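Following the same procedure, the fold was encoded as tokens, giving this record:
***
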Amino acid sequence: MKQVLLIASSVAASALSHSASAADVTVQLTDVRPGGGQIRAVLCVAGEDFPNSCKRTNVTPAMAGTTQVVFKDVAPGSYAFAAYRDANGNGKLDLAGGIPKESIAFSNNAMGRQGVPSFSASVFQVGQTGAQLTIKMRRIGAR
């Protein structure tokens, strides 16, 4: 019985220490265009195919003006964020001649010269208390 209690205490302490080291990443996306749709976002670590194939994803209803995106239980470390407004709800970023037709955003408000910015241009740090970012949505193909 003492062994069971000791194991249970050890598991509980491990769970508490894990949750204490993970926090939220909250992103305020500004300049979100009216018209609904969804914000599709990713949070990537080094080594993932930023922004194409990241384990952490989030889909949030797009709110005109500012939309908040939250990633829960993020461990401290280096990350990059990317998002787009899926205006027509087709689940993909629509392109015209390789240029996004929908609004996009990257951490650090990074922009690539010909394509998406690199992970290193978009990287930010998440500490023990998480991170809060404000990022502007941009329309590349806007006239």
